[in-house]
Design brief:
Elements: E1 5-7, H1 24-44, E2 48-53, E3 67-75, E4 81-90, E5 97-103, H2 104-107, E6 117-121, H3 124-134, H4 137-140, H5 162-174, H6 181-190, E7 196-199, H7 202-211, H8 222-226, E8 229-232, H9 235-244, E9 252-254
Parallel strand pairs: 1-5
Antiparallel strand pairs: 2-3, 2-6, 3-4, 4-5, 6-9, 7-8
Helix pairs in contact: 5-6
Length: 255
């Protein structure tokens, strides 16, 4: 298996390549939020949380958050604790993506729509199973597919979006039998995960498909697609499911 984990060294990972670097104000806001988040995560006593951001305004779809990853605690060589984020990022609006490790500063330097940090502390069992996985390059890539669609269908393996990678990886960590994407998806269905249904008309779908390489709809069932019902994995649906299944605590939101 080709290792699909990349080590991001700049805040540009996953952004459109023509965009300019963050302004001084954006850098200040991102670093301030990262520092506040680090302090709160350390105080939580957790080793692994699901950490999200509002990368874009999704209020017209009644969604608060756009992107989620795993924030995990590790010890540096000098014995101090630091928080890292493992998450999947799209490459410059193309049809491919990779899994990255970043610091909190880089995670919140990507020009979010709102400078807020929502997170969910996972159950002790989930944390214990995820922590070694998140530190292992090969296992971190086990449920990864490079072909990317922002609106990937949750029960198909043709594409994979960022939130989908996170929830499938979580399923694989919780159950050894969920060792690949089809089995992880079956586990999620068995345990009651419900994706978000977006109502997108034909004009919107056609415009997105023709103008953006990172949007596709051919993995969705025809009946749902032509009925303007596009199901996909959202942060909001993941957070709600974690609480229903007692896999995580309440959503905590920081500035």
């Amino acid at each position: 298996m080709v290792l699909a984990v990349a080590f991001a060294t700049t805040a540009q990972a996953g952004r459109h390549c023509e965009e300019q670097p963050p302004s001084a104000w954006e850098t200040q806001q991102g670093m301030a939020l990262a520092q506040t988040t680090a302090v709160r995560l350390e105080a939580s006593g957790a080793d692994v949380v699901l950490l999200a951001r509002a990368g874009q305004d999704l209020s017209r779809y009644s969604l608060a958050w756009s992107h989620v990853g795993f924030a995990y605690r590790e010890l540096a060589e000098d014995g101090t604790a630091q928080w890292r984020v493992a998450h999947k990022l799209n490459h410059c609006g193309t049809d491919s993506a990779q899994v990255y490790r970043q610091g909190l500063g880089e995670f919140y330097m990507d020009r979010p729509w709102r400078y807020q940090a929502p997170f969910v502390v996972l159950s002790p069992d989930a944390q214990a199973k995820l922590l070694p996985l998140l530190q292992d390059n090969q296992r971190l890539a086990q449920w990864h597919t490079a072909r990317y669609s922002m609106l990937a269908y949750p029960w198909s393996t043709r594409y994979q979006q960022s939130n989908q990678w996170a929830i499938e990886t979580l399923a694989g960590a919780l159950d050894e039998a969920a060792s690949n994407r089809p089995r992880a998806q079956a586990w999620l269905q068995l345990h009651g995960y419900e994706p978000t249904t977006l109502h997108l008309n034909a004009f919107t779908r056609l415009g997105g498909r023709m103008t953006q390489a990172n949007i596709a709809f051919d993995d969705h069932p025809n009946a749902k697609r032509y009925g303007a019902r596009i199901e996909t994995v959202t942060v909001d649906s993941v957070f709600a499911w974690l609480q229903r299944e007692a896999l995580g605590g309440p959503v905590q939101v920081l500035p």
